[in-house]
TrEMBL record:
The entry's keywords: Cell membrane, Membrane, Protein transport, Translocation, Transmembrane, Transmembrane helix, Transport
InterPro entries: Preprotein_translocase_YajC (IPR003849)
Protein name: Sec translocon accessory complex subunit YajC
Membrane-topology descriptor: Single-pass membrane protein
Claim: Flavoprotein is one of the keywords in the record: no
Protein family per UniProt: Belongs to the YajC family.
Subcellular location: Cell membrane
Transmembrane segments annotated in the record for this chain: 6-22
Length: 97
């Protein structure tokens, strides 16, 4: 029983790390994957590098999106679209009066 007591702080540390570090990261990745798969033509998005654009086409073979920007058409990987910044462009349902 004394041996289990000596390992309790280490076990507790791993449990805390799981709930405060690993689990939130897994949830964030899950939300980003859902966001990426829910993209559709006409959506206004912002890439992680800060480029604003409108989705005009998808390339399933490359798993990429074609964005129309002020400079022309640019192809980006789906993972380059930022969830947090793009959500700011979408109209919120709570803003309606």
């Amino acid at each position: 029983m004394d041996q289990i007591g000596s390992f309790a702080p280490i076990i507790l540390m791993f449990v805390v790390m799981y709930f405060f570090i690993i689990r939130p990261q897994m949830n964030r990745q899950k939300k980003e994957k859902q966001f990426s798969s829910a993209l559709k033509k006409g959506d206004r998005v912002i890439t992680k590098s800060g480029l604003h654009g409108k989705i005009i086409d998808f390339s399933e073979k490359l798993d990429a999106v074609v964005l129309e920007t002020g400079a022309g058409k640019i192809t980006f990987d789906r993972s380059a679209i930022s969830l947090e910044m793009s959500k700011k462009l979408q109209p919120s349902t709570t803003d309606k009066k």
